[in-house]
Amino acid sequence: MFYDYDDIVTVETLMEMLGIGRNSAYYLLKTNQIKSVKIGRTYRIPKKSVQEYVLNSLRQPSEAATK
């Protein structure tokens, strides 16, 4: 999963990987749903954290599906 991406990605790459917008990407980072390291004003995100987020999302039914 995500083999074509570097081991550490930026917010822009995270957006591309998940097909989400900037606000959604920062929300996931700020709420620690995806683990990251903030260096100065920029986030660095381990690809493994993105993979774990996707796998956890697949395991848990979404709220929309339960309504």
Low-confidence stretches: none
User: Helicity range of the residues?
Assistant: 40-55%
Quickly count the helices.
Answer: 4
Strand ordering within the main sheet: 1-3-2
Question: Distance between the terminal alpha carbons, to the nearest Å?
Answer: 30 Å
Average pLDDT score: 92
Q: Main beta sheet, described? A: 3 strands, antiparallel
> What is the percentage of strand-forming residues?
5-15%
Query: What is the assembly state of the chains in this entry?
Result: single chain
Extended strand count: 3
Helix/strand-derived category reads: alpha+beta
Helix-strand blueprint:
Blueprint: E1 8-9, H1 11-18, H2 22-30, E2 37-39, E3 42-46, H3 47-59, H4 63-66
Antiparallel strand pairs: 1-3, 2-3
What's the short version?
One of its GO terms (molecular function) is DNA binding. It holds the Pfam family HTH_17. This protein is of the alpha+beta class.
Give your account of this protein's structure.
By secondary structure, this protein is α+β, with helices and mostly antiparallel strands. It has one domain. 51% of the residues lie in helices and 15% in strands. The chain is built from 4 helices and 3 strands; from the N terminus they run E-H-H-E-E-H-H. It has a 3-stranded antiparallel sheet. Strand 2 and strand 3 (42-46) form a beta hairpin. The radius of gyration is 12 Å and the shape is globular. The termini are far apart. The mean pLDDT is 92. InterPro entries: HTH_17, SinI_DNA-bd. GO terms for molecular function: DNA binding. Pfam families: HTH_17. This is Helix-turn-helix domain-containing protein.
